[in-house]
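agent: user wants the full assembly modeled, not chains individually. Plan: 1) parse entity lines 2) check alphabet per entity 3) run joint structure prediction 4) return tokens. Steps 1-2 passed, two entities, 687 residues total. Proceeding.
--- entities ---
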Amino acid sequence: MSAKRKILVTSALPYANNSLHLGHLVEYVQTDVWVRFQRLRGHECIYVCASDAHGTPTMLRAEREGIEPEELIAWIAGEHQHDFERFRISVDNYLTTHASENEELTSRVFRKLVEGGHIGRKMIRQAYDEHRNMFLPDRYVRGTCPACGARHQYGDNCESCAATYSPLELKDPVSVVSGTKPTVRESEHLFFRLGNFEEELKAWVPDHVDPAMARKLKEWFDAGLRDWDISRDPPYFGFSIPGESGKFFYVWFDAPIGYMASFLNLCRSAGLDFEAFWGADSTVELYHFIGKDIVYFHTLFWPAVLSGAGFRKPTGVFVHGFLTISGEKISKRRGTFIRASTFVRHLDADYLRYYYASKLGPGPDDIDLNFSDLMAKVNSDLVGKLVNIASRCAGFIHRLNDGVLARELPDDALFAEFAAAADEIAADYNGRNCAAAVRRIMALADRANRYIDEKKPWIMAREDDQRDAVVAVCTQGLNLFRTLILLLKPVIPGVTGRAEQFLGGGELTWADVKEPMLGTRIEEFKALLKRVEADSVEAILSEAREDAALPTTQATRAAAGSEAGQVAQPVETAPAKLVEEIDIEHFAKMDLRVARIAAATYVKGADKLIRLRLDLGDSQRTVFAGIRSAYVPAALLGKHVVVVANLTPRKMRFGTSEGMVLAAGPGGKDIFLLSPDAGAQPGMPVT
RNA sequence: GGUGAUGUAGCUCAGCUGGUUAGAGCGGCGGAUUCAUAACCCGCAGGUCGGUGGUUCAAGUCCACCCAUCACCA
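--- prediction returned ---
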């Protein structure tokens, strides 16, 4: 193992106006696995985080709740911290950016930037809400896109034609806050002269940022680095800018300084040396884990600000992708806005940690969460393979040898094979390729199960003179299990904790991959992890749907975008609209019938369709239904459904569809076929 | 619209600097087994590697264009 490293790690700061959801956890799990791995290897690795408190969204949310912003952020940050604990995210300190340490450091940084000549002033024109007496951030103005005429677009870009513009260019602009038409006002703002750092950044980026991201940054370098507006006018929830009257720091200016502030706060309670970590000549490694949406802030503004203020720059910025659920963006409407707290109320956090880890690579690719996939993966890998090893060996040790392990391993070479693989797995973890690490570990678990299978201790156990051999084989099995548990310790700390208890050898450390456990007593085996039950998953999903039914104000919607939240997992929120009213005659034109599904097959070449053969009593017909994402053919056989029987047949590439079956839901996994209650017969009209 | 990333078996993903019949896990099918939380073990089936064109003795792997998805545009 290499010399002891000194590392400081941060995750992006969750915004303090809303709860954490499963999207946030991708990052915290990724960070925590890496941090726990470094600690397991014996390195000093400190992990800090905080809630991002400032900005217009928190101000407005507090107003809506009828409380002071300080109360709101204390409440939400407390919730965040609680979620961190429940997901076993091992932060050493958690703060909010409204803390005094942050005000102190933000002022210090600002003063240094002023002294260095890195701050300028400029008059700008901005949308203003006369009703609320406030300037409006881009996301708080909506109107008609000047490029394509699409209505209800945000003030910064058009979701319909992707044009970008300023809110002042929108046609028929409306303030999201008051619903009135904004005016335009001028105001003097302070700007950080990013251009002063162009050469320094160009030199810094290639060695500290992923090559793909560096290519992306080229776009900004090519366009020329522009000044960055770091001030805001009141009313604004933030820190006042020293020496200015009625000016506040823009949330994005003080947010990353929150990393330092959280650390400073820790220094004061733990007696650490702040300058040793943040001073210009610090040799400590500093890494930021962030999402791909906030790359610019962390690879341009942030290192420039640090440098200008006389601090060290990050050693690396690690970028991950977003979470999709069943291939779709997280969406309140689809019921996939799943709070961290909802998940953990029904399922062990380790399930999600393992699932994410099994999919996380070092790059900025999005990862997909699919609950049936999660269930299959966790049940098969963790319960069926990993825990199974201990479960199938422990009984023999207790029955035949009073719970005491053999004095030596029957197969040292196999144990050494695992130890050798541990080096490669360590490299995977260190390179943030958790998916690769997990793959290797599961291959070892397969190997361990195969070993037991080959030795067949349950057959040997029938002969009295084979008892020692059985104990030896099971001792081997349990030692392989022990190595596996150790290798997974960064990922599933809850399970490994229970396993350590069971093995009775104290806390596992990395050195244990080379040292088998022999001649000691193990505890009685108890289930280390229960299987994921479909009921729990269903409970989570239905709670999320209930959440979605709660009213969402426009302000929250705006904040769900990336105005200020550091972790701005995009959330889709367009509601399902009611269609135009019709009279009874129109409805009566529809011939709805009960049908029995007589046959159901996949359609080759169609990823959405299932071919249904429907029995309508006196006749049969074929219907292609776009329900493949939610149903398997076998589950449909014999089911009664409702079909639109007089729909004009539609020729498709795969044949003609003679009708349509009725289903509810937004699509994807969430398609729910309508069925009549028991008793309805095929062919019955639905009226 | 510009820029970057991604698109490989039903599902989730590996495939490093181009090189024999494209891999794994899950799911499916068949078999074996009963120590184990219906777990484990053996075997089989499944892919024109998003599309089109090109470079090359040889391309999933390089180039061009196109399509789709995600992100960013201070």
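agent: reporting back. Confidence is low (pLDDT under 50) at residues 551-579 of chain A. The longest strand of chain A covers residues 119-129.
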